[in-house]
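Q: Here's a chain of 669 amino acids. Please give me its 3D structure as tokens.
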Amino acid sequence: QGTGGSSAVSKCSAAARGYIQDRFLQLLAGQRRRRAPLIHRGYYIRARAVDHCVQDFLLKTQSHPKTQILSLGAGFDSLYFRLKDMGLLHHTVVYEVDFPNVVCQKATLIKRIKELSALVGDTAGEGLGAVTFSGENYKLLGVDLSELAELERALEEAGVDNEIPTLFIAEVVLTYMENSRSDALIQWAAESFPQACFLMYEQMHPEDPFGRVMQQHFSQLNTALHSLAQYPDCEAQQRRFLGRGWTECSVMDMNDFFTCCIPEDEQQRVQSLEPFDEYEEWHLKCSHYFVLTASKGMKPSWTPLLPSVTVPRSAGPVRIVGSVRAAECAKLSGIPGLRRYGHHSVLIKPNVVLTTGGFGEEDGQHCRMRSFHVLSKTAGCWKAGCVTKKSADKRLGERLYHTVSCLSDSRAVLIGGRTSPSSAGLGMLWLKFHETCNASDPDDIAVELVNLQPAAEPATLRWRHSTTEVAFKGEQYLFVYGGCSALDPVLGDWYFLHNQELSSTSIAVEGPVPESRHSHSACSWEGGVVIAGGLGAAEQPLGSVFLLRELEHGFQWQAVEMHPPLVPRYSHTAHVHEGKLLLVGGVWFHTSSVPGITVIDLMTGLCLDYVINVEHLEWPLMLHNHSSVFLPNEKELLVIGGGGNCFSFGTHLNPEPVSLSLSNILTSH
């Protein structure tokens, strides 16, 4: 009941911001609270999926003299009022079932609010028994869904006709019931109604990092999600319905639904409603919810919703060729400054790693991080220290999704980043530190921050971009590519900044221009750059890899052909070692697994995927919005930070850095 009330408030907030058109939500939800853009998108896709299926049912049955909708666990949903207001219920009766106290509250609201009572019709009156409220074509039934015999009695009492086309709706409801009871209800619906459709929207994938955070959230609310263990994915849910009397059943996750079932112009409308920069969490949320429609004695309830193309499920499961073990760095546990995401880490000298910016935990609260941190490795052990920052402005360096490039032993340049997604990018800073800074004492490092005048302004007012060192005619340049800005959700331009004065230099580039992207990876290789993955203009992950190669008169873009093709991804990190491109983590639309380590041979195009073995970690390892540093001598990869806001389930920050030994996979090539 608590989650139902919270959902009503979230839907109401999404409607207030223009995501969904529904003036009745505010009347039913009562309280109004502004939710975050990520929550708005999550409730938009949920409402859109349910509406899609309901209107499909009404369209298919419009020639029937009578039809009915049974909304199970309806709470304060506004479906009836919207359909009635749109003139779509000429021959359809809507029955809503929920706990007696919930339907009593809803009945009281309807009687009190003229706009609602007018739509219910003149015959509205007190119900009898379980029928709490009875209107012209709308009835509220107070009954516990897990008591099937009571439900049957209540429906009979309310006048439900088992012989006419019937749509059952269960929007995040059945998972709160014991599986034996929800299974019995699914089977009863198929056996009792010869012409029926069943629409269900629920969670899935409980065992990956996001799924574990999701499960933990519901357990803390004392509302465990019972169906997840037995029915963890789309295929299991499909078997569940087909094994209980339903003859057709289609399931898709919400990434596929958004891509396939929402027209492009509507996708663009939603994406432009408010400043947004939580793409990873949005796609992870969508990969952990599904919409299912089952039917019996009627046309399949899903097929017309899909275009003739197949759902982009990324061609079967990812072929995993091996695993890499993740190990905690023993001496780095419990250091709050390392719990962050959207930060950047860079080797400022051998075995010394500087981490800047991001959002994380500081002084016991979540905020944009002001402190810089150093990790140093001596005698095989990592140690952490806090950097002394020298700057007139204490907030200088406080930003997310920037880059840091080390130009010498004593200076680095920090480029771009943002505070809020609605603000402009933040330009450039010099980071100056003593050449004598000591790897054995990480607390002995001081950094002076100097704000640079925006000589190369368009190059630096961006975030989620990449900055890579390149060489041209013996001179060193920084190659700034892609990203997003306050004006453009995705950029495809690039700049060459000369290493000394950081001024923009014009250098000719030929060849097929890569499509615009952000949250990609970029590594220096053979004087040029390797760009991999990213999120494209339609918020779709990209699977392309491009080389920027030096020519006599400039540079040339060149696509890398891979076999098997790279699974599209973004928000990963990358390193090149001896002609091998290593991609670490990220987000993809493959719901069967999470990205681990992908090794691409840049000479042959061979692409191999390795899973990360996390059995020695006691917490979920989220490999997006992280940073990573590769130590070539030890073939060790150090992953720092990572995580994000897990929809309405709370913020997850990886609690400590993780070490991945890659010696076995790099030698096996």
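Q: Can you summarize the key feature?
A: The chain has two domains: 46-296, 321-661.
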